[in-house]
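Lecture notes, part 5. Sequence design as translation. It can be helpful to think of inverse folding as translation between two languages: the language of shapes and the language of residues. The source text, in structure tokens, appears below.
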């Protein structure tokens, strides 16, 4: 087998991503493998509800439609396709791919990976799925599969599995596997690695960023890049941002390997090319994470528009008028967003939004009767009364939780193109060493240089100096913050303590916050426990996936040494 670098791309970061991406990646340049990530915590809930309606469903139907044209293109170009679009029914999607291949006359072999579904073990669960590693994918590719469909595997397994096949790595090749896992983590969210959702987006043309690909070498190092002529940008900043996304701590635990994020080195390798080296790996844990979704109850909401003067008094009037109606409702949350401006020259910019979200185990208590009571106030409440939508029925909401099970209790199985079922050995062994303390620390080979005493400071937003990216893990959120120079890193490391973080983001006060240092990335990573309640599907917060938590942090002002700030005309890293 060739030992040249593996060219592996991504064509989907979530269920609903750019439909044309699969075609664009297949026609934009050479590839060996194309991956698609369709699963997230919210997606599992959506697929679970699909499966309730029809047991033959439970997979990402979009992928099948994309494949109507893409299957022939992949076959012509010799590109293997690996996707977790199988969701809750990988065997069903594999059969659907075979039927599609016969229909369009493309001779491809299809395999799938199963064993992650543990729903029967969790009382009352809509879905319960273990996060499998890449071993089943590797086995399917070794057996000659052109298309490999999986259920719930880790996002990075879509890359580590093909890399282990390409280079014939063994499970004990921890450093190599860790390098592939890090590359997979960069690719998994698609255009987030090429300038999408990037703090310093004004520095690049990101109107239509291209999807990323990685050139993975036999030693596990990789170059992140994209097809020539596609939009967006690949820089150390865009890659750093994605590395920090939805990670917790310096050890990135996975079923294939534990990757040490504090060993990652990034270097420019030319235009739109960033090289990843130095990644160290350790044994994977001997347990697997299980994501569990349940129907949590019923929710509804009303958004009142408050315009002009006396905003606070108008909001208080509505609250008092609906107080009796809300008696007995399990949870009623009011939020006043002061989007209004004084002496505004448009009605919209003169208006604030008062949002009521109600949740209850019974749909009757938060259904149309309740929202109709809100609308009945129209002629007898504050001046200028109107709402953003008519009364609506209650909608079910889901809750997400996670658990851990011994890896040897999960029947990870590769179902090869000829139907042969091959059980995968359980990963793990000795658990990784304990997590390093979250207090500031000196990493080997990285001198701890104190921040220079500034000659003067400027009151400015943190984002004038630092980038950030944030996201969700169940009910928790993470916020990664990074800078691009050594002096800026010394200041950030010493200044942005947990106490300062919570002062800048008051909504995190009273919650457990952990801080982790990644000196080689000049980055800090904060984990905020419980800020998202029961997870995205429960609609607990205005920003239920914490996607903008990092941008809020960047918008907060503090005293920054003047010599660290870019010139006013600068656009940032």
């Amino acid at each position: 087998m060739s030992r040249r670098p593996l060219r592996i791309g991504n064509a989907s970061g979530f269920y609903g991503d750019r439909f044309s991406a699969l075609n664009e990646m297949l026609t934009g340049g050479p590839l060996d493998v194309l991956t698609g990530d369709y699963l997230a915590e919210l997606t599992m809930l959506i697929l679970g509800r699909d499966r309730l309606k029809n047991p033959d469903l439970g997979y990402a139907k979009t992928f099948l439609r994309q494949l109507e044209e893409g299957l022939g293109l992949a076959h012509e170009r010799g590109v293997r396709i690996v996707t977790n679009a199988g969701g809750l029914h990988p065997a069903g999607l594999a059969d659907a791919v075979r039927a599609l291949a016969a229909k369009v006359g493309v001779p491809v072999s299809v395999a799938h990976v199963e064993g992650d579904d543990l729903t029967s073990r969790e009382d009352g669960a809509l879905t319960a799925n273990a996060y499998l590693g890449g071993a089943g994918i590797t086995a399917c590719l070794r057996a000659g599969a052109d298309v490999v469909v999986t259920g719930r595997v880790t996002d990075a397994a879509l890359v580590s599995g093909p890399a282990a096949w390409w280079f014939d790595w063994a499970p004990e090749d921890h450093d190599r596997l860790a390098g592939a896992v890090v590359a997979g983590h960069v690719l998994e969210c698609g255009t987030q690695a090429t300038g999408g959702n990037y703090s310093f987006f004004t520095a690049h043309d990101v109107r239509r960023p291209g999807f990323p690909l990685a050139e993975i070498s036999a030693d596990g190092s990789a170059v992140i890049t994209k097809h020539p002529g596609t939009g967006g940008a690949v820089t150390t900043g865009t890659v750093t941002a994605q590395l920090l996304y939805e990670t917790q701590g310096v050890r990135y635990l996975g079923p294939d390997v534990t990757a040490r994020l504090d060993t990652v080195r990034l270097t420019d390798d030319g235009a739109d090319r960033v090289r990843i080296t130095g990644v160290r790996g350790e044994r994977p844990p001997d347990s697997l994470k299980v994501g569990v979704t349940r129907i949590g109850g019923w929710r509804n909401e009303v958004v009142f528009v408050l315009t002009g003067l006396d905003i606070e008094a108008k909001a208080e009037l509505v609250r008092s008028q609906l107080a009796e109606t809300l008696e007995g409702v399990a949870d009623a949350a009011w939020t006043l967003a002061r989007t209004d401006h004084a002496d505004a020259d448009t009605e919209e910019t003169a208006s604030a939004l008062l949002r009521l979200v109600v949740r209850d185990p019974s749909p009757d208590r938060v259904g149309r009767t309740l929202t109709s009571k809100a609308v009945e106030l129209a002629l007898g409440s504050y001046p200028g009364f109107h709402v953003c939508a008519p009364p609506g029925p209650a909608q079910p909401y889901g809750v997400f939780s996670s658990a851990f099970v011994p890896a040897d209790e999960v029947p990870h199985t590769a179902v090869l193109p000829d139907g042969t079922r091959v059980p995968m050995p359980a990963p793990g062994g000795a658990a990784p060493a304990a997590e390093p303390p979250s207090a500031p620390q000196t990493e080997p080979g990285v001198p701890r240089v104190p921040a220079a005493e500034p000659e003067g400071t400027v009151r400015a937003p943190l984002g004038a100096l630092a980038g950030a990216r944030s996201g969700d893990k169940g009910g928790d959120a993470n916020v990664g913050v990074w800078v691009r120079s050594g002096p800026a890193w010394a200041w950030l490391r010493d200044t942005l303590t947990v106490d300062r973080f919570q002062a800048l983001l008051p909504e995190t006060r009273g919650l457990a916050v952990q801080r982790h240092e990644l000196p080689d990335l000049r980055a800090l990573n904060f984990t905020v426990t419980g800020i998202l309640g029961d997870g995205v599907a429960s609609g607990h917060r205005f920003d239920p996936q914490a996607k903008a938590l990092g941008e809020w942090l960047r918008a907060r002002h503090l005293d920054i040494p003047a010599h660290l700030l870019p010139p006013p005309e600068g656009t940032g890293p």
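The translated text above is only one of many valid answers, since several sequences can fold into similar shapes. The radius of gyration is 25 Å.
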